[in-house]
Specification:
The protein has 363 residues and is of the alpha/beta class. The chain is 38% helix and 13% strand. It contains 14 helices and 10 strands. Strands 7-6-5-4-3-2-1-8-9-10 form a 10-stranded mixed β-sheet. α4 crosses α6. The structure holds iron/sulfur cluster (SF4) (2 copies). The site of one iron/sulfur cluster (SF4) has 14 residues, from α13.
């Protein structure tokens, strides 16, 4: 590897170049994250989508299958089925199997209903990725957040999926002040359980967590969390230890090394909302990101995703990465770009990410 020793303005120029090359070739969504139902068998105190009962306007089975055809036509590669709890849809195996004929398919679950029979059906349906939510390394912590008995069920679901040989099993953790100190034990547990991925994000004050803003991480704690994940990645290379937060780039020497290797095409695009992928809400609305940037840019019942991807003005703006504020004068503008969902919640999807602790070196 031949690394460049780059000044902040060189970092900006170098990553701008890699970003433009990559994004100009991405003329289709790589991943669609689909909230299939708002029904859930748990009632987590921090649920960002306030899940519980099914939404009356959820897609029917027939509409869901048409949506999959629509995604495939647009060139989508990976479908991530989430919720609520997607296993509560009676047609989940039909939908998963149909999707797996044309797409790579992942499922996000709380694990509560993922017994051996359900896991085997998912495996037989062609699902290749499973993510189970785990918010603690011990029952006391996880169950306080997600409900009595949920830790044992989630851990058992993980064991079953690892045992069944799914190609990609991972843990997703939502970090708040309730489990911040438990992260080292959570990573160790992930490693002991034999999963391939441990991914941590921080609790956002959205949905039911709006009332828990006092338990959200500070900017500095978010930075500490990401630094911790990057350090653990060095210690346990057999486990992918990461975060969906784009700021992971600024603390990960490994990611930076790849990006500044002149012989490598590797690049970090940072926030992927509207660039790498988009979201689909329970009632079929196409949005740039299901987690924060829930601005409707199309309707899967009426629109071709292919056309939405080609013509949406908001997607064009996101792809341009012409962000403002602190993100617009940051050397990591193209490699991180700031969470566009967090910026949108603060009032402007192209504004600065209000949750970032980093002070840019560029002036
Ligand atoms: S966080 Fe997930 S498991 Fe918990 S209530 Fe919400 S959708 Fe259900
Ligand atoms: S200022 Fe914006 S682009 Fe720079 S590291 Fe922070 S979030 Fe990323």
């Amino acid at each position: 590897m031949k690394r460049l020793c780059l000044s902040p303005s060189d970092v900006l120029d170098f990553t701008w170049d890699k970003y433009q090359r990559k994004v100009s070739r991405l003329n289709h969504p790589v991943v669609i994250a689909w909230g299939l139902t708002s029904a859930c068998d748990l009632h987590c105190i921090h649920c960002a989508v306030d899940a519980g009962e099914p939404n009356k306007d959820e897609l029917s089975t027939e509409e869901a299958l048409m949506a999959i055809d629509n995604m495939a036509e647009a060139g989508t590669k990976h479908l991530l089925i989430a919720g609520g709890e997607p296993l509560l849809r009676k047609d989940i195996f039909t939908i998963a199997e149909y999707a797996a004929n044309s797409l790579s398919v992942g499922i996000n679950t709380n694990g509560f209903s993922l017994d051996r029979s359900a896991a085997q059906k998912l495996r037989d349906s062609g699902v290749n990725q499973v993510r189970v939510s785990l918010d603690g390394a011990k029952p006391e912590t996880h169950d306080m957040i997600r409900g009595k008995g949920s830790f044992e069920r989630a851990v058992e679901a993980i064991r079953i999926c690892v045992g069944l040989g799914f190609p990609d099993v991972g843990i997703e953790a939502t970090i708040s002040l309730l489990n911040y100190d438990e992260m080292p034990d959570m990573v160790r547990l992930a490693s002991d359980l034999g999963v391939g991925v441990f991914e941590a994000g921080d609790m956002a004050p959205a949905g039911r967590a709006k009332k828990l803003a006092h338990l959200c991480l500070s900017k500095e704690q978010r930075g500490e969390m990401l630094r911790f994940l990057a350090e653990m990645q060095e210690t346990i290379p057999s486990l992918i230890i990461t975060s969906e937060l784009p700021h992971i780039f600024i603390v990960s020497e490994e990611m930076q090394n790849k990006c500044t290797d002149i012989y490598s095409k590797d690049v970090s695009l940072g926030c992927g909302a509207g660039i790498v992928g988009a979201g689909l809400t329970v009632d079929g609305k196409i949005v740039p990101c299901p987690l924060g940037l829930q601005v409707e840019i199309g309707d899967i019942r009426k629109d071709r995703l292919k056309d939405v991807w080609a013509n949406s003005e908001l997607l064009k703006r996101l792809q341009s990465r012409e962000v403002t504020g602190k993100c617009g004068r940051c050397e990591y503008q193209y490699a991180c770009g700031g969470c566009r969902g967090a910026a949108a919640i603060a009032g402007d999807p192209m504004g600065e990410d209000p949750g970032c602790w980093y002070e840019p070196d560029l002036r």
